[in-house]
Specification:
Elements: E1 40-41, E2 51-56, H1 62-77, E3 81-82, E4 86-87, H2 92-104, E5 109-112, H3 120-129, E6 134-137, E7 148-152, H4 154-169, E8 172-178, H5 184-200, E9 204-210, H6 215-228, E10 232-237, H7 240-253, E11 267-272, H8 275-283, E12 288-291, H9 294-309, E13 312-313, E14 317-318, E15 324-327, E16 333-337, E17 341-342
Parallel strand pairs: 2-3, 2-4, 2-5, 5-6, 6-7, 7-16, 8-9, 8-10, 10-11, 11-12
Antiparallel strand pairs: 1-13, 12-17, 14-15, 15-16
Length: 358
Amino acid sequence: MAGRTVRNRRISSRAVSAVAVAACATLVLAACGSTKDDVASGGGGGDGSGKVGVILPLLTSPFWQSYNDYVPKMAKSEGVDALKTVNSNSDPSQQITDINNQLNQGVKGLVVAPLDSAAIVAGLDQAERKGVPVVAVDVAPDKGKVAMVVRADNVAYGEKACEYLGKQVGSGKVVQIMGDLASVNGRDRSEAFRSCVKKNYPKLKVLEIPAKWESDTAASKLDTLLNANPDIKGIYMQAGGVYLAPTLQTLKSKGMLKKAGQAGHIAIVSNDGIPQEFDAIRKGEIDATVSQPADAYAKYGMYYIKAAMQGKKFKTGPTDHDSKIVELPGGILEDQLPAPLVTKDNVDDPQLWGNTVK
């Protein structure tokens, strides 16, 4: 996920018997996947009106701060009556409480960025019982009923980081600072990076820091790792929003922060696409990041919740906005939005959302 600071608290999740959106084989659609012309009524009817609750995982990351800023703008552009966002403050149990509070306020739809892929099922169960559709943003649930998951391909994040470091470093030790493995995002990025290195760059040795989207954990464990391995040649940060500052500070404190092109430079690739990462690329402090689309997350989160409130459903396949809808285990549909690799060659591209925020 985009970086999050999740405390070591987990709640038990209940099994949900109903699967999410089916493969839509019974829908009469002209083509697969389109979010405009190829949508069919799912039987729920309705005009898409009613209040929509929007629940954030946290607001300590620049990524989620940007997403939060985009939500009211995109809600207005998509004709969604969104309530003021609710911040679950990195607490999975609080997020379930937040969902229940929104349901008790009579919302007709929910857009939720899950903190924990398993724990969120309890909240999805509550929403399903009340007949309230849910769109998940950034993180897919392990199971449960959602109208759509709006998310980039997190496997591709890990693979892009692997390919970049593999070509830049070639051989030697590289570190991946992982996210929370209770989140499908952390699992996808970690396993994809690990598998890609093993398959394509066997001369690289991967060292791992399980940091749970926590900046303090990342800093302390990186410091310890560098003491034992001063010959590190590359770092993959799975969330620049929480790992960028502590990583650069730790390297600087050890005299290991060398600019790109200088002897001893440690190649660094990140995930998020926040303005701070772009500035670090321009300064030569890091080399690349994968731009996770905060603007598109907000836009299509609003689009899909309105469609779900109208009883519309979707099929797998290409969309009309340069993405692809895929089916996850349990029949859950996910719109995988594009997430480009950003380097010094394209860091000033005005189309990147990180260059549009102030």
